[in-house]
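Provenance

Sequences were taken from public entries as deposited. Structures were produced by running a predictor on each sequence independently, with no templates supplied. The record for AraC family transcriptional regulator from Hymenobacter edaphi is shown for reference.
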Amino acid sequence: MKPTAPPVLALKSFPPSAGPRPYYVAGLAEHLARFPHVREPHAHDFYLLIYVTEGAGLHTIDQVTYELRPGSLFFLAPGQVHHWQLPPEVQGYVVFFSAEFYLFRYPGPRLYEYPFFDGIRPPVLYLPPAETGLLGLLQRLHAETRAEQPQQVEVVRAYLLLLLELAARHVAAPATGAAALAQQQIRQFGVLLNQHYRQQRTVQQYAEHLHLTAGHLNAVCRRVLNKTASALIHERVVVEAQRLLAHSALSVAQVADELGFDDPSYFGRYFRKYAGRTPEAYRQQHR
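Predicted structure for AraC family transcriptional regulator:
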């Protein structure tokens, strides 16, 4: 029988060889050799970055499979389920950190505003070969953490800030005016959606949170992401349903209850409408 849910790994599950730290940095090949179980589906209670320098494979995040190749930079937020298929020659870097580690020095909403953590945009950047700034930072961060150094925690935190800020520049050119406002509204919508998708599934509810009309929120989403707000809400609900169906032993009725559906039959119709098959058929395909 399947476990109730995929394991959720804590930061302390990955002790660095130099001793406990409030972060984890390692070469990708070294990481996979020390912790081979990470090839199986699992989630984390922390944030992580994965940068690939050599090798090619597949990386599945929340049931969506992405190409993994040199120059790939993946971003995962707490709770996302992922697994990968990697060749023996894969090389790169992994960086793990908790929200508390970042927020201790950089408080405020910035961590939740990064576009690659909003649950709406793809969680990967495919960087061109000419882009060496982020790779250089990762190499120096990796070297910094090989042994204890004075003020190392602050140095690592500063490197992390630089990595996230410079990576965010690759998502899109900084917007100004109305475009900047639209992107801010999209980020806020993404945060709200991750908080409330189990209880709130109408555009009007999210629009009220944002002090917008439902029509305006739909228009902003369509302009920035080429999807309606309604489509994004349904996608978020279906992704969570797929996680539970694929990685847990919960019955369909229990999955429905977990996602806030009072009627399992309605959940079945909802899932079939937006996923293209019944919950039972989806589970059978992903056993």
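Residues 8-169 form a domain with the Jelly Rolls fold (CATH 2.60.120.280).
The mean pLDDT is 89.
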